[in-house]
Write a structure and sequence with these properties.
It is built from 10 helices and 11 strands. It is α/β, with parallel strands linked by helices. It folds into 2 domains: 173 residues, P-loop containing nucleotide triphosphate hydrolases (Rossmann fold, 3-Layer(aba) Sandwich), CATH 3.40.50; 99 residues.
Length: 339
């Protein structure tokens, strides 16, 4: 089994909660490894509580989560960067670059000069300050506690599995109690029902009393081709291609966006790097259907000319504006008037 298939299989197991006999056995086999991970996380967090991070030359706004992916960090970072840009505040985006797809998207949206990529994010914030940026947006920063942040935004997806199971038995990198160190909580919603959203907000109120929160609706819509030009929505059946943490949610979103259209999912591991063989397989599999992919997949599939005539990209954005008290907190950090 390839590493990609193993990651996809783990994600599927976590999302299903171990339903079925084989799933329950698999979760049981992983259970002994969960306790050492929990203890290591607790020890690490205790160390950072004793040794706070040093000041930074510009304010840092961190966007992170408790799980290994799938909460909507990339669209939320874009949402915040566009909000600051609208307020006249040049914001840098600091990202480790684990997924080259995310880096390519940020550069497409905000230009090379606004995106700082590397493992040493302290040095990246220093570099952003030296280039005149007034603040830094830290992608996937909740666990990166070596870097002091002015605001710590924690994202929890309404589609996240419950109960909390930590790695490797589940997708959680920290327990729910860690939400208490956030300054603001965002419950992101793709396809979950309103009751599930309300349940998550209640769980977070219990885990992090007094930490303000809001719901961030993640909306699918708007069509482009692989070159980035405006395109028409597919008129017939589709093959949905996604190398993201939650491909099933992508499929469900497309089915809701395109009622009556029959959709089949071709799911890959998160951050999968497409090969010529992958593309040939997808083109053979599509028949006369249109291939629909995410923005993250588009920046990788665009390098295959044979895919371009047959593929369209669906947009994915945060709806609306930051609400109070987050809006005022952003304005204060950015040194601008609340919009």
């Amino acid at each position: 089994m390839t590493a990609g298939r193993l990651r996809r299989g783990l994600h599927d197991l976590w999302e299903s909660g171990g339903s079925g006999g084989a799933g329950k056995v698999a979760l049981g086999l992983l259970a002994p490894a969960e306790l050492p991970f929990r203890l290591a996380v607790a020890a690490r967090n205790a160390r950072y509580e004793r040794e706070p991070a040093p000041p930074t030359p510009i304010p840092v706004v961190s966007v992170g989560n408790l799980t290994v992916g799938g909460t909507g960090k990339t669209p939320v970072v874009r949402w915040l960067a566009e909000w600051f840009r609208g307020a006249g505040v040049p914001a840098a985006i600091v990202v480790r670059g684990y997924g080259a797809d995310e880096v390519a998207l940020y550069r497409r949206w905000f230009g090379d000069g606004a995106v700082f990529v590397g493992r040493d994010r302290i040095a990246l914030v220093d570099a952003a300050a030296a280039r005149g940026h007034r603040l830094a947006l830290l992608d996937d920063g909740f666990q990166h506690r070596r870097l002091r942040r002015a605001l710590d935004l924690l994202l929890v997806a309404a589609e996240d599995p419950w109960p909390v199971r930590m790695l490797p038995r589940g997708p959680y990198r920290e327990p729910l109690a860690s939400a208490a160190r956030a300054t603001h909580l965002l419950v992101t919603r793709r396809t979950a029902c309103r009751e599930t959203v309300a349940t998550w907000r209640e769980r977070l109120r219990g885990a992090a009393p007094g930490v303000p929160g809001q719901v961030a609706e993640l909306r699918m819509g708007g069509w482009r081709d692989l070159a980035g030009s405006t395109a028409e929505a597919p008129a017939g059946d589709i093959l949905a291609v996604a190398s993201i943490a939650r491909p099933q949610a992508f499929l469900a979103g497309l089915e809701a966006l395109l009622p009556g259209v029959r959709a089949e999912l071709a799911g890959f591991a998160d951050h999968h790097v497409y090969t010529a063989r992958d593309v040939a397989d997808l083109l053979g599999r599509r028949g006369d259907r249109t291939v629909v992919c995410t923005g993250k997949d588009a920046v990788k599939l665009a390098s295959f000319p044979e895919m371009r005539p047959h593929c369209v990209v669906v947009g994915f954005r945060v709806a609306g504006e930051p609400q109070e008290p987050l809006r005022s907190a952003l304005a204060e950090v950015g040194g601008c008037a609340s919009r």
